Amino acid sequence: MKKILLLLLLTSQIAWTQSKQDSVQFRELANEIMVNGEAYENLRELTQSIGNRISGSVGYDKATVWAEKKLKEAGADKVWLQETFVPVWVRGKETLKLKTQNGKWEDLNFLSLGNSEGTNGKDVEGEVIMVNTLGEFDKLSEKEVKDKIVFFNYRFRQDFITTFDGYSDAVLYRSVAAVKVAEKGGKFAMIRSVSTGVDDVPHTGTMRYNEQIQKIPAIAIGNQTADRLEHLTKSGKIYLKLNSNCGMKEEIINYNVIGEIKGKDDKIIVAGAHLDSWDVGEGAHDDGAGVVQVIEILRTFKKLGIQPNHTLRFICYANEENGARGGEKYAEEAKRKNENHLFALESDAGGFSPRGFSLDMPLNKIKEIQAWKPLFLPYGTYDINKGYGGVDIHPLGRLLQTPLAGLIPDSQRYFDIHHTAADTFDKVNKRELQLGATVMAQLIYMIDKNW
After folding, report:
1. Same domain? 265 vs 238
2. Residue 17: per-residue pLDDT
3. Which of 123, 140, 224, 414 has the most other CB atoms within 10 Å of its CB?
4. How far is 78 from 268, CA to CA, in rounded Å?
C-alpha cells in the first residue's frame, strides 16, 4: 500500500511539474506575441497595400508574393508555392433599380452573389413576389413564379446565441435560391443578406447552380432594403430591374503559400488560413486575420527558439471563398506523398477575442485537449468542444483522418461584416487579433509536445 501511495504522489508531482512548465511556456508565448507581435502591422500591410484578393485576380497574385515574403521574414526553414487550378469569377458593373410610384427608377444597394451569372449587360425587369421561407416557395405553382423575381425574405435568426449556428441555418437560402427559382421559370432570385447587421450593407458569398437547369442571376440586399421591400410587397405590386455583367471566366493557376519549420521527425502539424477574400472590402477579418495569425505563430516559435518535435507547416490557402480548391489540393498532395499529418488547426472566423477551439477528432483526443483547459483559461479560452475544424483543413480529415481544430473567436460581430465592403482593417482590434494568435501558438505547442 505504501508503494502505491508513493507512486501516486510521484505521479501527481510529475503532472504538477509538467503543468507548471507548460504554464511558463504559455506565458512566454503570450508575452512575445502580445508585446512584440507583428500580426497587426502585417494585416495593415495586407489590407491597405493589396486589399481584396479574390481567386484569379491581380490582388491574389500580389497577396501570393506578399505571403511568400512574410513567411521567409518570419524565419521559415523552407517556403514554397503549391499550384492549383481555381475558378475565376468577375463581378463587373451591376445595378438594381426599384420602380417608384411616379414611374421613375431608384437605385438600390445590393451585391450579386459569388459565382452567379449576370444579365449580360441587359436589363432584366419583373414583378417581385416575396416568400419568407423555402417552404412557402415550394407551395407556389410554376404559373405563379414564371417570369417573376422571387425575394427570399428569410431573416438571420437572433435566438441563436452562437452566430455561426444562425449562419448555418440561413446560408441555405444563398446556396439554393437561384436553382429553386429557375426550376419554376423565374427571372432571378434575391435574398435578404445572411447578416446580423442592422445596417443596409449587402453580403455576398458563394452560391451554386444545377448544371441541368438554366442559370439565372442571384443577388443579395442589405437588411434595411429588405425591410423596405417587405413593406412595399405587402402594400402592393413592386417591380425591380437588374443589369449585371458578372460571370465565370476560364480557370487559371493560383497558389497555396506554404512555410515550414523542420521538426525532429517527419510527422506534420498544420496551422492554416485562407489568403483569398471576396472582391469587396479588404478581407480583414475574412481571412486576413487568420493569415497573419498563422505567420505570427511561425515567427514566435523561431524568435523563442522553440525546436518542435514534429514538422510545423504554415499554410496560406488559395480559393476558399468560391471553390475551396486550395484545401483540396493540399490534402490530395499530402495523401499522394503518404505524409503523416498529426493535427491541423485553422483560423477562419475573424480576428475577435478567442473563446475556444472546435474539435473534429476522436473522443479520446478531444478529452486530452479538454484536459488542458486550465492552461488556456487565463487567456479567456474556455469553449473546447466537439465541432467543425474548417473548410480548408476539412479535406485532411476526410482523406487522411487527420484530427482537426478551428479557432473560435467571439462571434457576435462577425456576421455584421462577413463578405461585405465593410470588412476592413479598421474593424480589427490589435489586442484581440494577437490574443487569437497567442492561443493558437499555445495549442500548437501542446500538440507538438504531447502527441
Report:
1. no
2. 65
3. 414
4. 14
Domain boundary among 225, 245, 265: 245
In a domain, 3, yes or no: no
Q: What pLDDT sits at residue 100?
A: 86
CA nearest 411: which of 348, 360, 361?
Answer: 348
Q: DSSP secondary structure string, 302-328?
A: HHTT---SSEEEEEEES-TTTT-HHHH
Q: What percent of the chain has pLDDT over 70?
A: 96
Calpha distance 218→187 (Å, rounded): 10
Instruction: Clarify whether residues 85 and 219 are in a common domain.
Output: no
| pTM across the whole model | 0.94
| Grid coordinates of 45 | 500591410
Pair 355, 410: CB distance under 8 Å:
yes
Taking alpha carbons only, the member of 259, 356, 358 closest to residue 317 is: 259
Residue 314 lies in a domain: yes
For residues 97 and 190, membership in a common domain is answered with: yes
DSSP H or E stretch at residue 296: helix 289-303
**Residue tagged 465593410 (cell numbers):** 422
Q: Pick the last residue of a domain from 245, 271, 291.
A: 245
pLDDT in tens, 143-194: 999 999 999 999 999 999 999 999 999 999 999 999 999 999 999 999 999 9
User: What order of strands is seen across the sheet that includes strand 218-221?
Assistant: 105-107, 94-99, 239-244, 124-131, 149-152, 188-192, 218-221, 110-112
Note the pLDDT tens digit of each residue in 70-103: 999 999 999 999 999 999 999 999 999 999 888 8
Amino acid in position 196:
T
* Total domains, the chain: 2
